[in-house]
Amino acid sequence: MADLFVIKIGGNIIDDETKLSLFLKSFAAIDNKKILVHGGGRLATKLAEQLKIPQQVVEGRRITDAETLKVVTMVYTGYINKNIVAQLQSNNCNAIGLCGADGDAILAHKREHPVMDYGFVGDVDVVNTVFLQSFIEKNITPALSPITHDGKGQLLNTNADTIAQEVAKAMSSEYDVQLIYTFEKSGVLTDVNDDNSVIPVITPSLFSELKAPLTGVGVPKIFAGMIPKLDNAFAALNSGVKKVIIGKAENLAGLIDGSSGTTIINE
Description:
The chain contains nine helices and 14 strands. It is of the alpha/beta class. It has one domain (3-264): Carbamate kinase (3-Layer(aba) Sandwich). The strands form four sheets. Strands 5-8-2-1-11-13-14-12 form an eight-stranded mixed sheet. The chain has a two-stranded antiparallel ribbon with strand order 3-4. The chain starts with a strand and ends with a strand. The model has no long low-confidence stretch (mean pLDDT 92).
């Protein structure tokens, strides 16, 4: 099977014009089939504040009421997505900007929770692999914004990390998929304050050692907030993804050739 890179760019990079420009130049230079998934950055929050729309975040997750949904849809699928596409075109990467509703690309359902109402937040049900493949095989790169739909006319705000993972899992039936999460850190760190403390490779057995306190033994060797990301990475590997890579957006070429970041693989 042909290789396919599914690459997620974090919101904090989107907020930095210089870093975003450098990242997109590196992304455009990848001489393989590829899909870009992007987050939203802080622009939606700033716009909501200007429009005097109250914003509520619980445990790092945005509560998406009806007015906030309008803002994030305008910002994520509008300005941010088209700015990314325009920059990719300027770097000779023919791209098309999509959200989950376009071509029925990503079908989701409104999140259900026994206590918390997250509003119009979506959890992914189905990725339209045939639709995405139709672009990839014509050397057109999909750039996906984190807005999905429920098939009944309702747009939903969906976590971009989740979209990247679900797209990677779905496309692994047709390609050898490498899922790359890029953000501001150099990889999975043993010391969150030391960017040189990157763990180059994590296997299931090493992961068990790194999260020892969860099994009641030892001291944590990685930042607790990274554990859910790694749980998701291994879930992707167990669903057909070839490898998962986590690292700094500015080092994209190094993440791909293995000289940078953290590579997560099954033993």
